[in-house]
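> example.struct
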């Protein structure tokens, strides 16, 4: 009886380790259009980035944004303390991609490891938000301006899709959320834009 219980415990431990390994390590990605903060760090366009410069694809946190997900002030890092540099607004000095108000934009994701996907959602800051403060839900529109359903399919290594940007002027931030279909997580990417 003891051997059977011991074997069962070992089996569960192996299964749990395998599940953990495949749950997050098998899915990674980031946006490069508009260019995300993590990609700017990886490209060394921005310095003093810490660990994210070596793994821009790893900004993973709980899914369900905005009802769940990373805490306010930690959204750009996906709630990962090791990537806290992404939450630092740097006095509003992150390089910004020029975009057109109300214009169509092609959003592009790069995946270093592909994973089945529920959807891609894009949120934008409200008029009058403060670019000198870490990102909070109150600074974002409550609904995404663009949602791309993906039906549990696996994306290619590079995925592009287009959508219309909201009417805005000045500096804003776009939060892209890639919801993984079969884990409890999503990937987060903050992109600074200038209308």
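> example.seq
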């Amino acid at each position: 009886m003891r051997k059977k219980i011991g074997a069962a415990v070992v089996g569960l431990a192996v299964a749990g380790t395998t599940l953990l390994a495949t749950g997050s390590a098998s899915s990674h990605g980031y946006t490069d259009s508009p260019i995300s903060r993590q990609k700017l760090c990886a490209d060394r366009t921005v310095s003093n980035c810490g660990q994210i410069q070596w793994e821009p694809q790893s900004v993973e946190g709980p899914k369900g944004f905005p009802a769940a997900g990373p805490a306010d002030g930690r959204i750009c890092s996906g709630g990962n303390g090791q990537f806290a540099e992404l939450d630092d607004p740097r006095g509003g000095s992150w390089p910004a991609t020029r975009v057109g108000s109300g214009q169509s934009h092609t959003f592009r994701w790069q995946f270093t490891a592909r994973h089945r996907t529920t959807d891609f959602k894009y949120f934008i800051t409200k008029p009058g938000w403060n670019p000198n403060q870490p990102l909070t839900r109150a600074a974002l529109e409550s609904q995404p301006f663009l949602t791309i359903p993906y039906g549990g399919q696996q994306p290619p290594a590079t995925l592009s899709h287009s959508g219309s940007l909201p009417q805005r002027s000045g500096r804003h931030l776009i939060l892209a959320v890639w919801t993984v279909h079969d884990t409890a997580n999503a990937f987060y990417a903050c992109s600074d834009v200038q209308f």
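> remarks
The longest helix spans residues 2-25.
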